[in-house]
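Hi everyone,

Forwarding the result from last night's run.
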Amino acid sequence: MSSARRELLAIAGLAVLAVALWAVFRSYPNYDAYYHLVWGRELLDGARPDIGVADAPTAHPLYVLFGTVLALVFGEGAERVLILACVASLLACGWAVMRLGRSVYGTWPGVAAAVLVVAAP
């Protein structure tokens, strides 16, 4: 079996594990993510998002757009889908760090860097 095939199988296995953990354990978005989902829902209701409220996080237009799309497609389940998107993004980031570390320093330093990035997002 080639190393590229082993790498893809490992990533696929980690993806399946991540989705299984997401499905089994309930988790909720943090403060900033909830605000962006609320702003997306306000846009869907035809209202202007209230980004000037006290202690509101910095509004990021693409994140507000993402929250709008999630609210439109998934309704009340948008929070769970946002968590899944974050888990998938973290997995992709770890994979990219592993590949970069492997190309510069070797396999084991790349794997160690990926583990550190994924363990402490």
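Residues 28 and 80 are 7 Å apart (CA to CA).

Cheers,
N.
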